[in-house]
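Because discrete structure vocabularies remain unfamiliar, we reproduce here a specimen of the format, pairing a chain with its fold in token form:
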Amino acid sequence: MSWLRAIATAVAIMAVAIAALAYVPDMIVTNVHLSSGLGVALCVAFSNGALVVILVGLRRLQARGVI
């Protein structure tokens, strides 16, 4: 794997992870008008689900030799 491809892959993975684990939960809290406890529960559920999806995706990419 070339250095350029490795850097591009790392940047893409980090962008997806940051968006899924930071920006989307923040958007849920600020834009969805729910009670405080329900909003936090929704954000926690989304963050945990997104983390699992990211980890499974990374494992599949590793098995295919992409990363």
